[in-house]
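Section 5: illustrative case.
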């Protein structure tokens, strides 16, 4: 049994953190679904930037629709591929994520307006709209959930940021219950892992390398499990709500000297999602081995985090920094993507 299938059987969903037209046209994505237990997909502006910049597959679409592009079409095609999984699991799995413009990360009203428009335009029940868990994004998350829009909360880096996102989700669900609306609105909360280790690799002793992201994940998983067992959650669960699942994001190994499946084997946990780059997925299927399940009590996370504190790492300050840098990175990729589309459209128009 492949490690991908093992993870799936143990209750963790495997999502692909990539989308290109070639993946769709070649049948590769369909093969990943059939053979590697992939049950969902995420995307972001960086992925589309690389896909359009490094391929001619989008040239025809750019000719036809310069300003809008065709990334949304790729995601709706992917959503159709995952639709049987969504139907079979009654909406637990089979999701595809589409991001609101990262230019709106600090603009609550515009984020909510964009989320509603994207959801309506896609016309697919298994499309999650990604909203960053920034201070300004949290009210938009609550309002979007209340409006019945499935949400992927992105750019979370700590248990505190996760809990703030979970609070926004729960407020939206509680308001739906109070209003007599159906409370079964799906959501995931995406906690980024590998960027922690990349941020401190030159600041900590060798013995602490590649341990911070996993420790943060364990602390967050403890908070997640505690929330699911809380009386507050049980009340809305009894009213028909479904949990907001915890999702591990940024799980490709950044350190070339570490295992290429480091974060996958270390973050196996039931009722979570791991969204991984294509190379990591293939490495997992080829030679991956799954470790023990994450402990519900966080295991040794506080001991490990204490060692980082002793090495001068302020994880709270770093979490805020990483979230801010992540938002800026997506903005840069978005602007570069728009520039690539405009540049390609001009070149193609001139050549035609």
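Designed sequence:
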């Amino acid at each position: 049994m492949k490690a991908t299938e093992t993870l799936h059987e143990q209750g963790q969903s495997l999502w692909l953190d990539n989308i290109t037209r070639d993946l769709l046209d070649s049948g590769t994505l369909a093969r990943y679904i059939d053979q590697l237990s992939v049950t969902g997909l995420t995307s972001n502006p960086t992925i589309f930037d690389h896909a359009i910049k490094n391929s001619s597959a989008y040239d025809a679409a750019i000719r036809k629709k310069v300003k809008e592009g065709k990334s949304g079409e790729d995601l709706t095609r992917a959503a159709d591929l995952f639709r049987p999984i969504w139907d079979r699991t009654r909406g637990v799995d089979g999701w595809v994520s589409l991001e609101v413009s990262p230019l709106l990360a600090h603009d609550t009203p515009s984020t909510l307006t964009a989320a509603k428009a994207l959801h309506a335009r896609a016309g697919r029940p298994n499309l999650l709209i990604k909203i960053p868990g920034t201070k300004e994004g949290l009210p938009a998350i609550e309002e979007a959930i209340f409006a019945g829009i499935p949400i992927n909360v992105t750019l979370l880096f700590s248990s505190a940021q996760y809990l703030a996102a979970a609070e926004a989700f729960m407020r939206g669900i509680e308001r739906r219950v109070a209003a007599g609306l159906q409370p079964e609105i799906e959501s995931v909360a995406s906690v980024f892992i590998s960027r922690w280790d990349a941020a401190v690799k030159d600041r900590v002793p060798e013995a602490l390398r590649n341990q911070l992201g996993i420790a943060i994940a364990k602390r967050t998983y403890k908070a997640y499990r505690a929330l699911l067992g809380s009386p507050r959650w049980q009340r809305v669960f009894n009213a028909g709500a479904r949990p907001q699942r915890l999702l591990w994001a940024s799980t490709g190994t950044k350190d070339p000297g570490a295992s290429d499946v480091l974060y996958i084997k270390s973050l196996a946990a039931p009722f979570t999602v791991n969204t991984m780059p294509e190379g990591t997925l293939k490495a997992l299927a080829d030679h991956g081995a799954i470790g023990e399940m994450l402990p519900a009590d966080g295991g040794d996370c506080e001991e490990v985090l204490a060692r980082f504190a002793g090495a001068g790492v302020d994880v709270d300050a770093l979490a805020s920094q990483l979230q801010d840098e992540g938002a800026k990175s997506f903005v840069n990729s978005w602007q570069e993507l728009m520039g690539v589309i405009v540049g390609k459209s001009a070149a193609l128009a001139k050549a035609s």
